[in-house]
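Report of the visiting student (M.T.), summer placement. My assignment was to run the structure pipeline on a short list of targets and document each run. The first record concerns DUF3103 domain-containing protein.
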Amino acid sequence: MKKTMILSVLSTLALAGCQSEDAKVTDISNAKAEDISNTKRTLALQLSESYANIEPMLRKDITAEHINVPLSSFAEQKPLSAFSQQLIQADTQIRAWKGISEYSDQLLEVRLANEEMLGVWQEGTVDPLFAFEPTGDDEQWQYIEAYDVYGQVHQLDVYQLPDVPVLVVDSNSSAELKAGLQAMQAEMSKLGQATMVQPYMTDIAKAQKSLFSHAESTPQPIQTTVLKKIRLANDQEPWISGKAEIYAIVTGVNPTRDEPTLDLVELPYLDYDNTTYLPNQIIIHWSRYRWGAADIVLMEQDDGTDYKQLAKLLVQVAEEVLKAIPDPEVQAYAIIPQITNKIIDAIPDGALTNDDDFIDVYYTLMQDTSYVDHPGAGVNTVATFEPLTINPTRP
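After the run finished, the structure tokens were exported:
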């Protein structure tokens, strides 16, 4: 769902002081996204040229249970090969570009583009092609570039799944998102923003134990909102992109200070559109938000994201909104959509190179309120939210 489609029907707060910084971050992110794509193009070509040497390993490791081969497999099984060395060097550089070197040991992998290709791949009668995900808005992609075992270029349809196996040089998006959210939290903390990262826990009891384990005094009941059900619309995601990696930014105002509160929530189960998920996941901790109101922005992790730069930008624009409002109590929770809209508007198209990476936004979710089959503002998601009070475990 395009950012512009949401913002064209919802008011935004334009802050001139942030515009030059937004443009700067966008330029930097665009450059890094292009560098990452070019690096993967080089690796895809090298993979095609080295295929005869690494084919036995790939055929052994790519199975119905695992359609990807991580960097560590190449390093362990073919440590001296030119392709393994290139992978290691590229992985180090890409993690640095993304700002997650401290939070991830490796990212790169070679994966079968789609599970539907597995049968043809296992038959071994057709040579695979070798591809990478292009940079830029996928609606502007004219084709997917791929190489055959002779290094010749093929132009594949963006949305029509090829009838031959395609091996994609890519990042492990799940590992990247975990590391990226950690990097964002650390950067926000440096800027004075006490951001919380909420990992996904399938069991509410486990989440309860984690929450109360940090209590400094007698634990009190915790007021939360739980995401019970969510479904993404069909977004025509290109086949080369693989599974989606979705996360949420919960936005609001600090209950004790005139400062924004920005929390990050992992949503690792949202792999595909047009599928209903029942996560039963805590998504809002109400003790962190004034007026019992918060917004939720749903985002998809993208290949060009520099997480440290993105964290700086989110904090900056949210703080600028509050600074422009002399008395927040007068507007009360009407302030929160202004923060949210500015965040959506400021996220650079280079940091999130597909506009579709902005998934949807839920405005003004209230404490102690149920929302059943509630559409997002962009009507790209439908979700059910329910209030949940978590009481301390009785002795």
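Confidence is low (pLDDT under 50) at residues 1-19, 350-356. Residues 31-172 form one domain. I thank the supervising group for their guidance throughout the placement.
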